[in-house]
Design goal:
- With 216 residues, this protein is α/β, with parallel strands linked by helices.
- Helices cover 32% and strands 12% of the residues.
- It is built from seven helices and six strands; from the N terminus they run E-H-E-H-E-H-E-H-H-E-H-E-H.
- The protein has helices at residues 31-36, 54-70, 89-99, 125-128, 140-146, 172-186, 206-215, and strands at 10-14, 40-44, 82-87, 115-118, 162-165, 193-194.
- Helix 6 (172-186) links the parallel strand 5 and strand 6.
- The longest helix has 17 residues, at 54-70.
């Protein structure tokens, strides 16, 4: 909890759904533990594929974070303690927000202090080569621009902490992507912290996502 009289830290949460499904409201159940801990917890939305491209989704996420920074009276959080987390597709978007060149937008270079990627999709080449590319229309340039594994900053531009977690019962592809991304990150940044999730399946397959959407 924040010390008495101090502003609380901010955690921006980015939902998953393979960039094409779900809404921040579907993840309302994640809010209470953060609120109980005195954290300003802010879930954000973005337009979904195929109405927009993944480039546009990332632009919208960055615009939402910039808006939060420029409008502190709307949330009352500590702008010097702004962190980002995300699940699945959000696990791709959160690290991309961490490494963004915020100074180019007229904002502090270290605006995002750290990121948490839960069941993140860190190499979009896997999406380009499978059925999930339907509606995404990924090409080589989009893959490179939007894959966290290809956007790790050099050591001369140090980043805040990066936490990674994948359920131990998830597919080998999730495990591989996390391991490869951590290795790439560790070559130029402070070591990424991998948080084990034994016995867990955190990511949802497309069938599960579709079922969740139908139940709404």
């Amino acid at each position: 909890r924040a010390a008495q009289g101090a502003k609380p830290p901010i955690l921006v949460f980015i939902h998953g759904g393979y960039w094409r499904l779900l809404d921040k409201a579907d993840f309302a159940f994640t809010a209470p533990p953060y609120a109980d801990a005195g954290i300003v917890y802010i879930p954000i939305n973005y337009a979904l594929i195929p109405a927009v491209t993944i480039d546009e989704i990332l632009r919208q996420v960055r615009a939402a974070i910039a808006w939060l920074y420029r409008n502190p009276d709307m949330h009352g959080g500590d702008l010097d303690r702004l962190y980002v987390s995300g699940h699945s597709a959000g696990g791709q978007l959160a690290p991309m927000a961490l490494v963004h060149d915020w100074a180019a937008d007229g904002l502090p270079a270290g605006l995002v202090k750290g990121a948490v990627a839960i069941s993140g999709l860190h190499d979009l080449e896997a999406m380009r080569l499978c059925y999930l590319n339907e509606g995404m229309n990924l090409d080589d340039g989009m893959v490179r621009r939007n894959s966290p594994i290809h956007q790790v900053p050099p050591a001369t531009r140090p980043m805040g902490p990066l936490l990674l977690s994948v359920g131990a019962l998830e597919s080998p592809e999730f495990q591989r992507q996390q391991a490869d991304y951590a290795a790439a990150w560790n070559r130029s940044q402070a070591a990424a912290r991998i948080v084990p999730a034994p016995g867990a399946i955190v990511a949802l397959g497309m069938a599960g996502l579709l079922s969740a959407r139908r139940r709404r």
